[in-house]
Amino acid sequence: MDRSRPMILPALIAILALVLAACAGGAASPAAESEVPTPAESEKAAESEPAESEPAESEEAVAEEQVRIESSNFDPRELTIAVGTEVAFLNADGFTHTVTEGTDGQAVDDPIVDEDIEQNGTVRVTFDDPGTYEITCELHSSMQMTIIVEG
């Protein structure tokens, strides 16, 4: 009998709890995170943390979207979001990329994000101003995506 199967659901619940806890923190602009924890690490962390209380009614929930980096591509390649939405970029490739505002591997002047993202790493960016943002990878200039922020 495979004893690892009963551990999958608690591990997934623990990961979901950690993701929700990170969203409730209301991060401002780009914040690079270290590696994604393994299910065992997530479960251990969830067991040691007290239960999360309900946020005060005056706190606004931060909407979150996810962009997956895989096979040297952003997925999705175009994303339309509301002002104030946090976008989590997850690197599922086996090597480093960057999440950089710019095109063709070149950053714009004063980019809102220009972060290295290691394998299994996550970079979170909150888009507070309406507009169209081009995102590229400085290491792989063919990687492009567009984020349209509606306000």
Low-confidence stretches: 25-34, 48-59
Return Rg in Å. 17 Å
- Element string (H = helix, E = strand): HEHEEEEEEEEEE
Strand content: 35-45%
Largest pleated sheet: 6 strands, mixed
Q: Give the overall silhouette.
A: globular
Indicate the structural class.
alpha+beta
What separation lies between the terminal Cα atoms?
Answer: 54 Å
- Estimate the mean pLDDT confidence: 78
Question: Helical residue percent?
Answer: 10-25%
According to DSSP, the number of beta strands is 11
The number of helices is 2
Describe the SSE topology.
Layout: H1 5-24, E1 31-32, H2 39-48, E2 64-70, E3 73-75, E4 78-82, E5 85-91, E6 97-103, E7 106-107, E8 114-117, E9 122-127, E10 131-136, E11 144-150
Helix pairs in contact: 1-2
Based on the model shown, name its key terms.
about 150 residues, alpha+beta, 6-stranded mixed beta sheet, 5-stranded mixed beta sheet, 2 helices, globular
